[in-house]
Design brief:
The radius of gyration is 16 Å and the shape is globular. The longest helix is centred in the last third of the chain and has 24 residues. By secondary structure, it is mostly helical. The relative contact order is 0.12. The chain has a two-stranded antiparallel ribbon. It has one domain. It has seven helices and two strands.
């Protein structure tokens, strides 16, 4: 990754954090761009066939280290940047509240976050659910998890589109999103 790409990535992650923390009114004492890990380093710590961009969590006896890594091929992909920033922020928020989370719920929340950011930027929030393809690296259980998160989030976000169809509905949409973000992880899946 070039120095220009690296600087651009850090700005994009900081912007994604601003959007996500603003939407949900999160008060997190972290700067997501400070948690960026070199993709080669992250992948050396992960199982083979891990995604080229993602969240890395390393558990040691006395501490847990967390980071996000973005492959050079994904630096200019705003969906990937929002998704990985979402994972980090949601994991931090849950840790502050002593809640555990599954990979399924992390993926689910990131899908909702991509929708929310796009929608509040005045774009088609549902576009991220359409016209995509599954990555080749996924094994069957991973693909099932991603598909379940994707389908549940798509159902939930379509319901948001029906209930809050226009700009005048933005305050009510934000209220719903904030309430949903703070729901217990298992309740989110049941609500969708």
């Amino acid at each position: 990754m070039t120095a220009a790409q690296s600087a651009s990535l850090l700005r994009a992650i900081a912007e994604a954090q601003r959007w996500i923390t603003s939407i949900y009114r999160l008060d997190l004492d972290l700067r997501a761009e400070q948690f960026v890990v070199d993709p080669d380093t992250a992948l050396s710590l992960l199982p083979p066939d891990s995604p080229r961009s993602g969240l890395v969590v390393v558990e040691e006896p006395a501490e847990i280290s967390v980071g996000i890594y973005i492959d050079a091929a994904d630096v200019d992909d705003p969906w990937t940047v929002i998704e990985e920033t979402s994972h980090l922020l949601y994991l931090a928020w849950l840790a502050d509240h002593d809640w555990s989370v599954s990979r399924l719920v992390l993926e689910f929340q990131s899908e909702v976050d991509r929708y929310a950011v796009a929608r509040l930027k005045g774009r088609n929030g549902l576009a991220s659910f359409e016209g995509f393809s599954w990555c080749d690296w996924m094994d069957a259980p991973t693909r099932e998890r991603y598909a379940a998160a994707h389908n549940r989030a798509h159902t939930y976000c379509r319901s948001l589109e029906r209930r809050f169809p226009g700009r005048p509905d933005t305050p009510a949409l934000l209220s719903e999103l904030r309430h949903f973000y703070r729901a217990a992880p298992d309740q989110k899946l049941n609500a969708a």
